[in-house]
């Protein structure tokens, strides 16, 4: 066995071979599938940090720290994937990313791959004929938190999983039936119980800068999202989960990436690209609405949900570089204090790229940009104990420094309830604010913003659409 290496040429070939079928089947989006989403892995208005008797309105410090770490790792890992898939480094990747694996980390990685190389493969049995199931909705419950999760099933007969729908990455990761106790508390994918599974005889290793890993094997199997089937979809079955994926910190089984193939760590087409290739979706796009209101969050596959947004307010912005959902941001401002003019952090003349990422909670940018944002706010301070670059401001003034972000010439307001992540600690009068430093010059636009808009991820036209909520 050897770590997966698939050249970008192969990806390109696959994509050209199966062009978007969107224009062939535009009739009304009646076949579109609504996948209800719920929040998980609580960060906001937390319920932990004070044992069995949580105080509402508190930020969940442990989850926020874990989440920020995970975000950082995800970007390191996907920037690295971009480089290996395309042969050039991503323009937004900081020079220090990807960091070279230390010799010791590399030795450990090889040793753990070695250890698994003796596991039996799973030969493919005959392909069972399947009637495609009727697209339908799956019921939704609301939890506090920041990751947006929904249900998928894999294989024949179907095995069910909850996954984080993450537009900031491009791979499917599930715990394997052969995973050790690091996967306890999660549903596990058992390829031997699926007649459509194929062992691709490749290992993968999601190795990050700090040497932590999710190591596993690649399979191809049929993945059902709502009623749509991605046939022979590549997925990773993890044999170990790193701390960030372990229950109860991570209470979802796995991840499902909705980014472009260029950032696939497996170097394989992501599930939405497979659906397009299969001609399964009426339009090559998906729409996402995230809401703290129970039952209002959904992923709409193959169409937009016109009931959810104000259609005349929709603006589209071209993807600058297909890898992440990366677009140009026209502005980021907040009101000035004491009736002074707006504080402008970004505008059309100051260049700013934004990555639209449902898998990130906050709006994350450079320390300098964040400093500029909070500089004149009395009582604003960094809270290093919550994570690098996290700021807090007095709870009673957070409502007067809410950001407005402009895309495609239209300004979108961020509400107080989404910008305020909760009280710093029990007796603190400060609250954690939704824009953090600790990143780079570009902006990762996470749920703090996305909960205020309807977002269209238009793969066919390589653009992102935003509309005001209905
Ligand atoms: C998987 O989920 C579907 C849809 O919710 C359900 O009908 C089915 O019983 C579940 N299967 C298992 C094995 O839990
Ligand atoms: C799981 O397997 C990994 C890789 O061999 C190992 O490093 C880790 O200690 C194991 N964890 C447990 C709890 O057995
Ligand atoms: C993986 O290895 C097994 C056993 O050697 C083999 O039967 C199978 O065809 C291989 N799968 C692929 C996709 O090459
Ligand atoms: C899926 O894989 C199986 C086995 O490799 C193959 O027989 C089948 O034709 C593939 N189906 C599609 C739609 O690619
Ligand atoms: C919909 O958006 C348009 C453009 O922003 C605006 O003029 C209109 O008032 C909005 N309609 C509703 C019902 O909010
Ligand atoms: C706004 O007014 C308050 C109270 O007068 C003062 O403390 C603060 O420095 C002023 N802030 C700015 C940005 O002018
Ligand atoms: C845009 O931002 C730049 C850099 O922050 C600033 O120099 C310039 O004055 C701003 N332009 C406008 C029109 O606000
Ligand atoms: C908060 O205040 C209460 C009452 O004054 C006190 O008992 C408690 O220890 C304080 N908690 C913290 C974390 O300081």
UniProtKB/TrEMBL annotation:
<dbReference type="InterPro" id="IPR034164">
    <property type="entry name" value="Pepsin-like_dom"/>
</dbReference>
<keyword id="KW-0064">Aspartyl protease</keyword>
<protein>
    <recommendedName>
        <fullName>Peptidase A1 domain-containing protein</fullName>
    </recommendedName>
</protein>
<feature type="compositionally biased region" description="Basic and acidic residues">
    <location>
        <begin position="101"/>
        <end position="112"/>
    </location>
</feature>
<feature type="active site">
    <location>
        <position position="166"/>
    </location>
</feature>
<keyword id="KW-1015">Disulfide bond</keyword>
<keyword id="KW-0732">Signal</keyword>
<dbReference type="InterPro" id="IPR021109">
    <property type="entry name" value="Peptidase_aspartic_dom_sf"/>
</dbReference>
<comment type="similarity">
    <text>Belongs to the peptidase A1 family.</text>
</comment>
<keyword id="KW-0378">Hydrolase</keyword>
<dbReference type="Pfam" id="PF00026">
    <property type="entry name" value="Asp"/>
</dbReference>
<keyword id="KW-0645">Protease</keyword>
<dbReference type="InterPro" id="IPR001969">
    <property type="entry name" value="Aspartic_peptidase_AS"/>
</dbReference>
<dbReference type="GO" id="GO:0004190">
    <property type="term" value="F:aspartic-type endopeptidase activity"/>
</dbReference>
<feature type="domain" description="Peptidase A1">
    <location>
        <begin position="148"/>
        <end position="467"/>
    </location>
</feature>
<dbReference type="GO" id="GO:0006508">
    <property type="term" value="P:proteolysis"/>
</dbReference>
<feature type="disulfide bond">
    <location>
        <begin position="395"/>
        <end position="431"/>
    </location>
</feature>
<feature type="disulfide bond">
    <location>
        <begin position="179"/>
        <end position="183"/>
    </location>
</feature>
<dbReference type="InterPro" id="IPR033121">
    <property type="entry name" value="PEPTIDASE_A1"/>
</dbReference>
<feature type="active site">
    <location>
        <position position="357"/>
    </location>
</feature>
<feature type="region of interest" description="Disordered">
    <location>
        <begin position="81"/>
        <end position="112"/>
    </location>
</feature>
<dbReference type="InterPro" id="IPR001461">
    <property type="entry name" value="Aspartic_peptidase_A1"/>
</dbReference>
<feature type="signal peptide">
    <location>
        <begin position="1"/>
        <end position="24"/>
    </location>
</feature>
């Amino acid at each position: 066995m050897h770590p997966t290496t698939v050249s970008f040429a192969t990806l390109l070939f696959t994509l050209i071979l199966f062009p978007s079928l969107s224009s062939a089947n535009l009739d009304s989006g009646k076949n579109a599938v609504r996948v209800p989403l719920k929040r998980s892995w609580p960060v906001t208005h937390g319920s932990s940090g004070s044992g069995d008797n949580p105080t509402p309105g508190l930020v969940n410090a442990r989850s926020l720290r874990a989440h920020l770490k995970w975000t950082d790792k995800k970007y390191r890992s996907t920037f690295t994937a971009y480089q290996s898939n395309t042969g050039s480094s991503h323009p937004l990747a900081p020079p220090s990313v990807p960091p070279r694996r230390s010799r010791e980390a590399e030795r450990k990685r090889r040793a753990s791959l070695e250890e698994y190389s003796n596991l039996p493969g799973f030969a493919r049995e005959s392909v069972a004929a399947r009637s495609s199931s009727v697209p339908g909705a799956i019921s939704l419950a609301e939890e506090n938190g920041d990751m947006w999760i929904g249900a998928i099933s894999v294989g024949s007969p179907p095995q069910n999983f909850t996954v984080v729908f993450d537009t900031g990455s491009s791979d499917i990761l599930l715990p394997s039936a052969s995973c050790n106790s690091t996967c306890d508390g999660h549903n596990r994918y058992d390829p031997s119980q699926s007649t459509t599974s194929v062992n691709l005889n490749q290992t993968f290793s999601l190795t990050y800068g700090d040497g932590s890993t999710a190591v596993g094997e690649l399979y191809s199997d049929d993945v059902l999202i709502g009623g749509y089937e991605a046939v022979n979809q590549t997925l990773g079955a993890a044999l170990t989960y790193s701390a960030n994926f372990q229950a109860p910190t991570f209470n979802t089984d796995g991840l499902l990436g909705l980014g472009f193939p260029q950032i696939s760590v497996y170097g394989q087409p992501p599930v939405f690209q497979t659906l397009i290739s299969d001609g399964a979706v009426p339009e090559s796009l998906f729409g996402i609405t995230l809401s703290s209101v129970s039952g209002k969050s959904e992923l709409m596959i193959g169409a937009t949900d016109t009931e959810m947004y104000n259609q005349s307010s929709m603006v589209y912005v071209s993807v600058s570089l297909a890898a992440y959902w990366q677009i140009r941001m026209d502005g980021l401002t907040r009101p000035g204090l004491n009736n002074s003019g707006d504080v402008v952090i970004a505008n059309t003349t100051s260049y700013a790229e934004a990555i639209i990422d449902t898998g990130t909670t906050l709006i994350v940018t450079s320390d300098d940009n964040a400093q500029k944002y909070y500089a004149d706010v009395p009582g604003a301070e960094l809270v290093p104990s919550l994570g690098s670059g996290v700021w807090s401001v007095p709870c009673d003034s957070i409502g007067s420094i809410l950001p407005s972000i402009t895309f495609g010439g239209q300004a979108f307001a961020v509400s107080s309830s989404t910008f305020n992540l909760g009280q710093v600690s029990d007796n603190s009068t400060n609250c954690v604010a939704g824009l953090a430093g600790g990143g780079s010059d570009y902006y990762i636009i996470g749920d703090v913003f996305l909960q205020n808009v309807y977002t269209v991820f238009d793969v066919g036209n390589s653009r992102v659409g935003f509309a005001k909520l209905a």
